[in-house]
Amino acid sequence: MSTTLPLFWHLSSASKKERLDASVKLVGTLEQFQSQFQPKNAPAATSGSDDEGDEDEEEEGASKSDGLDLLNAQDVSYSIRRLVRGLASPRESSRLGFAVALTELLSRIETVTCSQIVTLIVDGTKTGGSMTGQEERDVLFARLFGLTAVIQSGLLVRTGSLTTSASSAAHASTLSSYEETIKQLIALGENKSWLRESAWWTIILAVDALKESEVTWKKDAVDVTLHQLFEENKDWSPEKVALALKLQALHPDHNWRKCFAPSFKNPDLLHGSNLQNLARILKESAVDEENGKDVPKASTGNWKPQLHFVWDIILEQLLPGPNSTQSARGSFQEFFRMVVDASAERKYWGFQVFQKALPRVTQDSMPMLFTKNFMRTWINHLSHQDRYLHKIARQAATDVHAFVQSNPQLGFALILQLTGVNGSQQFDRLTRTKTVENILTSMDAEGIKNYISYLLGQVNVPAGQPTYVGYPSYLVESKHHDLLRREDVRAINTRRSWIIEQFGALIRSGAIPKSDEWVQSILDWLVVHGLFVVKKKSEKSPFLVLHSIPNPVFSDDLRQSCRSRLLSCIGDLNTQATVIKSGEKSLKVPAVASNGEFWIARVLQSLQNLELDSKHVSLQNPLEEHDSALCTKAHELATRLRTVTDERQEAAKGAELLLMATVLQQYCTDGEDEGDTEALEACIDGATRMFPQAKKSKKARKSAVAETDDVVPEPVDIFVDTIIGFLEKSTAYLRTVGNQVFALLSGTVQESTIDLIVTQLERRDPAELLEDEDEEMDDAEEDDEEDDADSEEENEESDAGSEEDEDSNDEEEDVELRNKIEEALRVNGIEAATGDSDEEEEYMDDDQMMAIDEQLVAVFKNRANEKKTGKGVDAQREATHFKNRVLDLVDTFVKKQPSSGLVIRLIPPLIELIAGTGQDERQLSDKAKGILRSRIAKSKEIPTSVDVESTLKVITDLHTRARKVHSSDMLATLSQCSLYLSKVLVHLDSENSLVQIYQQSLADFITRKNSALNTNFFQDFIRRCPASAWSLRHDLLDLSGRSVNVYRQCQVYQLLDTLIGQLPAMRDTPSTAVIEFMTLLRKTLLEVATDACDEKNTLTAAQLKEVFKLALVATRQTQRVDRASASKVWQPDSWHSLAGRLGASNRFKNSPGLKKMCEQIVRLLKSADTSKLPTKADASPVATKRKADDIVETEDGATVTKKTKRKKVKTDKS
Fold first, then answer.
1. Residue-wise pLDDT tens digits, 540-599
2. Can you tell me the distance from the alpha carbon of 668 to that of 737, in angstroms, rounded to the nearest whole number?
3. InterPro entries from the xrefs (predicted)?
4. Which residues have CB under 8 Å from 804's CB, separation 6+?
5. Which of 1015, 1090, 1087 has its CA nearest to residue 1056?
6. Where are the alpha helices (DSSP H) in 897-935?
7. DSSP at 385
8. Phi/psi of residue 1199, each to 5°?
């Protein structure tokens, strides 16, 4: 036992892994002891036989009464008793650990009987009157866990026998031990209601074990079980229902009517006649309900949120599941309806039953689950977070989504339930979730088609039925006939509006798998109901929508909604890419179907086919003759553009898309917007000139030559101007089409095009915008007045009354203005006329008029300013949104054409835009900044064919602005742009001009105190263009002596440090130039340090330390370039002498670190002469040098050298 005692401690650990490891070690050790044990023959059987065990146990001592020592090793018998006692321990997780170990041990050893262990458990877990409540609970749990261990180990129904003596043998398990186990479990459940569920679950384990066993007394054990459960125990509980259903499935031939009587009339517990009583039992009602007195129910404990295990057994029989072989019993729909109760506790259980039943349902059984009460409860608790059951309702929605992901073929059936009779078509809106949308994204293509067919079937009232279906006949025949019809038509229109929204959602979602078939069917449906009037149905038509006539007809609002949704669907499709296979390659192309054809082209083709079918449909708003001719010409031109196959094919596609988008917009307007016609004419003109026909007549050539005499805008400028006009409008369709077209036309953009775009980004005063709007309105009013002058004269008399009404209405609307005027009159002692008095009016004289004149002027002026201010704010907001859309064009161009020289022309206006925006236009500024920093500055490609002079002018302007700007963020943006232009100039062999610009900026930074430049501006240039920056080395040395202050001088030394650190990257730099510069640098640094010692400058110890760091870096780089010349260049004697001057200096004598740095330079130079230093090709120079950062300054200003820390290496003492 001395070897097993330590193993028991870890059985109580809170860690599951530690408990399992301890159990494995304990059982393994006990198996070894048992295999080495040699049992001794006993004169008689002890405790093994159920018949003679009692007499033998009385003769044994107290420690030997259980008979375990007869056939088991001492450690084994002790461990069994210890494990049984440990089940009642309240320490941590000891009950779990001891139960697992006991179960595993009983399953491994064959030298104990069931009777022995059950007796040991029962005797060791007796309750007493002196026990506290906690102690009693621990003992009862110990008995439950012990009996469960007996069952799960297989000891309860183990076959075979144990030899206890030469003349007797004991069976491992007997009928009496089985009966005793069942009795103890039933008593345990009756004693404490909170233990009943666990106790009866253990009984089910025993029944399952008995079914799988091969014991000779199996039939008798079944009879004993039925007797104990149904004859001696007449109370019903959910646990008893579960066990009854289990036994019925295992023994279907038994006489169950006798067992269930009189509580249940039918032997099938799930029969419809038993549901009412069964529901009362499962609800665990504490009081008898109506007609429920004949069903005795067991006492119930407190309600708990966990669902009872009986539901797993019930669902297994009511909803076997798609992969089950057994057939369903009873009606789950009826059963589920009776379980959902009004109490919140029962509703919580209802959600749990729903979660358990959902994975089992099929398409046919799904309606049984989504009952009216459940859907109402689910929607109510899902809609608000403060609802009591909101969390479980959200979990149910998550389970629905997961269910559809694993069963996409059932997604359509689920949507029918959520949006059907018991649910709501606005399920997502009411619940504020995306449940239906998520289901749609998880459905397969077949499910999407079925859903679309379902939506189309909901559009019309079935043929032969009146529109007021669903109302009682006596109401339909009454005088309220028209009212019912109007209400029903309103409901139909609401449903149709929802269907239109669903169609839009299907196309808008990029996660839903698209197929040309169902997308085209939606677009055709929107075209027909948005643009046409169905006169006659055509069952042979390729358009499914024409197979029936709308009943009732679509209202004007619905037609307008169809047109708007059609355009928005096209806009959504333009942003979604389709995989197009071209040979072995696959490309993602936006705005096209799977065959590469534009979706707009397919819509217009359908529109043309419908126009030809005048027998069945007709346009709701036919185009005028001029507009129709333009559309026809645009169609022909678009067809010709599809034949372009050379390098202009992409631009031809852009022109085609723009033409077709403008034509579709023309159809979808009501003919009141003349701008669309002008845009269409411009697009046709631009496309014709950009893509002329291959063959021209002589007359056409002459006319073309004649046109060149006049200034005609470029075709691409016409296209871009049209796109900008699209961006000014608030429709998403026009914006997406405009961006897509510009992406295709980006390869043909010219300088004039960029100027056109840049003009839109210029900042304008809101007052100017208002003036432009007012002028446009005035022009429009003048045109209207001229056109309608004659008609006004003819109808002057007839319109007089209406004008008076309009004037009176205007007066009534402006109540606030009237009140202010009356207040001004009242202040001057004049009452406003009310119209109620018949007395003679009192007229004001000139003095009174002059007295109120100023106040009236102030009233009207404030009123005008309020209107003007409101208009100004709206105009400024619209201008900001418009510029944001124009920036999308700029971003598209830079992305598509990074090597175009026109990219450089975009930099100045973007800089101006960033500098000129205010706080209310922060989004606009950030977007422009992102284009400059991320899109342009980080571009891997640079323009190759650009004008050097214009590029130099741009970078010069950038540096001029950088010297004056006082914003670190703006300066960083200017620096990024300058680096981009620097790469361009270096590529164009204009490095000298670039260096001159940086020389000027460097001089401004060093010599002017108020310069806005910083070291990062130049450090970025040094790191990105080290070869060009090397030309600034002499300027840095010269300007360091003319710096505006010491701080700026130290910044110059930082730049020199950065520049010298880049020497390894400049492999083509001649060594003579490096040696020459290092010599000048040594003279400058020694001179600065000497002046500091002589107090000729104001360098501090910390600043002088930076100077010496630069000297160390430069010394090492000199050795790397030319080892032999290092000492000659840096003259170690000069540094040794400087170290002496530092020690004698009053300013630096307390900073010994500076002296040590000088001595370090000396040692470094002398070591180059006496030992082999790393060459330029050596890979590890670290061993011969010390970092300058290893020298730090102490609190008193002194500098010391860091001691190198060495890692301690542990040695193996063994």
1. 888 988 988 888 889 999 999 999 999 999 999 999 998 888 777 888 899 999 989 999
2. 15
3. DNA_pol_V/MYBBP1A
4. none
5. 1015
6. 903-916, 922-930
7. T
8. -115, 140
Closest CA to 72 of 101, 46, 51: 46
The answer to whether the CB of 1074 falls within 8 A of the CB of 1176 is: no
CB neighbourhood size of 1048 (10 A) = 19
Cβ pair 1090, 1138 in contact under 8 A? yes
Pairing, β 577-582 against β 1191-1193? unpaired
**Stretch 245-273: mean pLDDT, rounded?**
86
What CA–CA distance (Å, rounded) separates 594 from 1147? 82
- The 8 Å CB, 24+ separation contacts for 601-604 are 601/638, 601/656, 601/660, 602/520, 602/523, 603/523, 603/527, 603/566, 603/570, 603/664, 604/635, 604/660, 604/663, 604/664
Give the chain's length: 1214
Residue 482: count other Cβ atoms within 10 Å of its Cβ: 9
pLDDT at 170: 78
**CA-CA distance, 704 to 706, in Å (whole number)?**
5
Q: What is the pLDDT of residues 580-594, one digit of tens each?
A: 887 778 888 999 999
β-strand partners of 586: 581
* Listed range (436-445, 457-466, 484-493, 685-694) with the worst mean pLDDT: 457-466
Find all residues with CB under 8 Å of 998, minimum gap 6, and list them.
Answer: 959, 1018, 1021, 1028, 1029, 1032
- Tokens 């005499």, residue located: 709
Torsion of CA 491, 497, 498, 502, to 10 degrees: 160
Cα–Cα distance between 1148 and 1144 in angstroms, integer?
Answer: 8
Contact at 8 Å (CB) between 913 and 928? yes
pLDDT per residue as tens digits for the range 433-454: 999 999 999 988 888 999 999 9
User: Which residue has tokens 């507009």?
Assistant: 627
**pLDDT surpasses 50 at 211:** yes
Helix (H, G, I), strand (E, B) or coil at 1068: coil
Tokens of 974: 């200017």
Q: Write out the DSSP string of 620-670.
A: SSPPPHHHHHHHHHHHHHHHHHTT--STTHHHHHHHHHHHHHHHHHHHHS-
Non-local CB neighbours of 498 within 8 Å, separated by 6+ positions: 425, 426
For residues 67-100, b (16+ Cβ closer than 10 Å) or e, as one string? bbbbbbbebbbbbbebbbebbbbeeebbbbbbbb
Contact status, residue 1174 vs residue 1140, Cβ threshold 8 Å: no
d(CA 1033, CA 1042): 15
Give me the pLDDT at residue 194, please. Answer: 86
Q: What does the block give as tokens for 186? A: 């039933």
> What CA–CA distances, in Å, run from 498 to 501, 565, 709, 735?
5, 12, 58, 25
Among left, alpha and beta (phi > 0; psi -120 to 50; other), residue 799 is alpha
The 10s digit of each residue's pLDDT in 597-625 is 999 999 999 999 999 999 999 998 888 88
As given in the structure block, the two tokens for residue 830 are: 């004049």
CB atoms within 10 A of CB 156: 26
- Placement of tokens 């509580």 in the chain: 263
Dist. CA 926–CA 63, nearest whole Å: 86
Q: Are 120 and 66 in contact (CB under 8 A)?
A: yes
Among the listed residues 446, 590, 452, 445, the one whose alpha carbon sits nearest the alpha carbon of residue 525: 452
Element containing residue 536 per DSSP (H, E): none
- Nearest Cα to Cα of residue 522 among 540, 508, 503, 539: 503
Contact between residue 106 and residue 66 where contact means Cβ atoms under 8 Å apart: no
Q: Which of 312-316, 332-336, 640-644, 1073-1077 has the lowest mean pLDDT?
A: 332-336
Res. 981: pLDDT tops 50: yes
Q: Which amino acid is at 227?
A: H
Q: What are phi and psi of 163, to 5 degrees?
A: -85, 110
Whether 577 and 519 have beta carbons less than 8 Å apart is answered as: no
Kindly report the pTM of this predicted structure.
Answer: 0.71
* CA pair distance 414, 354, nearest whole angstrom: 13
